[in-house]
From TrEMBL:
<dbReference type="InterPro" id="IPR056784">
    <property type="entry name" value="PSF2_N"/>
</dbReference>
<feature type="domain" description="GINS subunit">
    <location>
        <begin position="75"/>
        <end position="177"/>
    </location>
</feature>
<dbReference type="GO" id="GO:0000811">
    <property type="term" value="C:GINS complex"/>
</dbReference>
<dbReference type="GO" id="GO:0006260">
    <property type="term" value="P:DNA replication"/>
</dbReference>
<dbReference type="InterPro" id="IPR021151">
    <property type="entry name" value="GINS_A"/>
</dbReference>
<comment type="subunit">
    <text>Component of the GINS complex.</text>
</comment>
<dbReference type="InterPro" id="IPR036224">
    <property type="entry name" value="GINS_bundle-like_dom_sf"/>
</dbReference>
<dbReference type="InterPro" id="IPR007257">
    <property type="entry name" value="GINS_Psf2"/>
</dbReference>
<dbReference type="GO" id="GO:0007059">
    <property type="term" value="P:chromosome segregation"/>
</dbReference>
<protein>
    <recommendedName>
        <fullName>DNA replication complex GINS protein PSF2</fullName>
    </recommendedName>
</protein>
<keyword id="KW-0539">Nucleus</keyword>
<keyword id="KW-0235">DNA replication</keyword>
<feature type="domain" description="DNA replication complex GINS protein PSF2 N-terminal">
    <location>
        <begin position="12"/>
        <end position="71"/>
    </location>
</feature>
<keyword id="KW-0159">Chromosome partition</keyword>
<dbReference type="Pfam" id="PF25005">
    <property type="entry name" value="PSF2_N"/>
</dbReference>
<comment type="similarity">
    <text>Belongs to the GINS2/PSF2 family.</text>
</comment>
<dbReference type="GO" id="GO:0000727">
    <property type="term" value="P:double-strand break repair via break-induced replication"/>
</dbReference>
């Protein structure tokens, strides 16, 4: 897929998913495996039915081979996401707290292990609504940028990546305007 020119200088969503795949999650292995060393670290041993913590990339690989069940993170459920959506809609300025890579991790888990989730369609819908609510706040916030102070706490990596091109251009323009104002004074 060709990206628009404004997004070519930033990280692609697929690259962000690859970065997020380093996050450690829990699985319930269906096979036994000794401790195995990888470049990123040693993981295991895997002993069914005990839970194990491994990187998301390894969990995806095992899940695709039907050798584990992925235990969803505590935040990837209907109740938690509905609560966060309610917070986003009730507070017009602040972003509710979510894991930094929530969008990427949720997408990978929903795509690969939706059978390990309760109500995956409702979770997908809530994530979409949450994303839209947060994007609306981002757009509203970009319209009120002040070059002297900016706070964007609780934004996720995907959200930062999406607003980066517009934000950089906006800050460049604001800086030029501030400089021209000081030169005229």
């Amino acid at each position: 897929m060709a990206l628009p020119p404004a997004l070519r200088g930033s990280v692609t969503p697929q690259e962000l998913e690859m970065i997020a795949s380093q996050q450690v999650i829990e699985i319930i292995p269906l096979i036994a495996m000794e401790k195995t060393a990888f470049i990123s670290g040693a993981y295991g041993p895997l002993r069914p039915p005990n839970k194990s913590k491994i990187p998301l990339w390894m969990a995806v690989n095992l899940k695709q081979k039907k050798k584990c069940h992925i235990v969803p993170p505590r935040w990837l459920n209907v109740e938690f996401l509905q609560g966060r959506l309610d917070l986003e809609n009730s507070d017009s300025r602040a972003f509710c707290e979510l894991p930094f890579r929530f969008a990427e991790i949720a997408k990978v888990i929903i795509d690969i292990a939706s059978d390990d989730l309760e109500n995956p369609d409702q979770i997908r819908s809530l994530l979409k609504d949450l994303r839209e609510a947060r994007q609306a706040k981002c757009r509203a916030g970009l319209g009120q940028i002040d070059h002297s102070e900016l706070s964007l706490s609780n934004l996720g990596s995907m959200e930062i990546n999406e607003i980066r091109p517009v934000f950089v251009q906006s800050m460049n323009i604001l800086s030029k305007l501030a400089r021209s104002n000081t030169l005229e004074a």
